[in-house]
Design brief:
Structural class of chain B: mainly beta
Number of strands of chain A: 12
Number of helices of chain A: 0
Radius of gyration of chain B: 13 Å
Oligomer: heterodimer
Order of helices and strands of chain A: EEEEEEEEEEEE
Distance between the termini of chain A: 41 Å
Largest sheet of chain A: 6 strands, mixed
Helix content of chain A: under 10%
Strand content of chain B: over 45%
Radius of gyration of chain A: 13 Å
Number of strands of chain B: 11
Number of helices of chain B: 0
Chain lengths: 112, 113
């Protein structure tokens, strides 16, 4: 079946550090890939997505590239801020109204 | 535009009581999803609807849980009777059918004593 494996953390970084959160997936066909972010006390919100191989999603300084050959969708940011402290979820969908399959989430804390 | 609305935001109840969680999806969205989040199990999909029809309820933990969507603008998740292990944050999300981005509500934090 479809599944997502991601770094679980927790991870603590200093402000302006480089961030990478690894995410790999198993799926039949050509899924869409997502990163969702959950700030403390809030629901999940879409951070970025990519719908086909070699697409790059980007938002708020975060980037992730859909790599079909390595079945990966790693999240990166060159310089994290305290406000990036949150839980990050990698997810996939077969598309349309198919359900999302989430990874377990990774808690990131950024210290000043 | 209003996002997904959930009520109540917090619910504290005693074991054995009935609990009803409510969700209003974004207007025009025709897919609705109920999730449960706990530290131990992470984020789990409980059930989802397309055009008010339940499509997949395989994530519903047991018969104590039931969900309805009587119309396009309202859904409920009911737990009867509630147990302490049901304590979690319950999220509702909605999307446009044939679009894969889901929009989440703020969640209901349920505590069963």
């Amino acid at each position: 079946g479809n599944s997502v494996t991601q770094m679980e953390g927790p991870v603590t970084l200093s402000e302006e550090a480089f961030l990478t959160i690894n995410c790999t997936y198993t799926a039949t066909g050509y899924p869409s890939l997502f990163w969702y972010v959950q700030y403390p006390g809030e629901g999940l919100q879409l951070l970025l997505k990519a719908t086909k191989a070699d697409d790059k999603g980007s938002n708020k300084g975060f980037e992730a590239t859909y790599r079909k050959e390595t079945t990966s969708f790693h999240l990166e940011k060159g310089s994290v801020q305290v406000s990036d402290s949150a839980v990050y979820f990698c997810a996939l969908s077969r598309g349309g109204s198919e359900k999302l399959v989430f990874g377990k989430g990774m808690k990131l804390t950024v210290n000043p | 535009d209003a996002g997904v609305i959930q009520s109540p935001r917090h619910e504290v109840t005693e074991m054995g009581q009935e609990v009803t969680l409510r969700c209003k999806p974004i207007s025009g969205h025709n897919s609705l999803f109920w999730y449960r989040q706990t530290m131990m199990r992470g984020l789990e999909l409980l059930i989802y609807f397309n055009n008010n029809v339940p499509i997949d309820d395989s994530g519903m933990p047991e018969d104590r849980f039931s969900a309805k969507m009587p119309n396009a603008s309202f859904s409920t998740l009911k737990i009867q009777p509630s147990e302490p292990r049901d304590s979690a944050v319950y999220f509702c999300a909605s999307s446009l059918q044939d679009r894969d981005t889901q929009y989440f509500g703020p969640g209901t934090r349920l505590t069963v004593l």
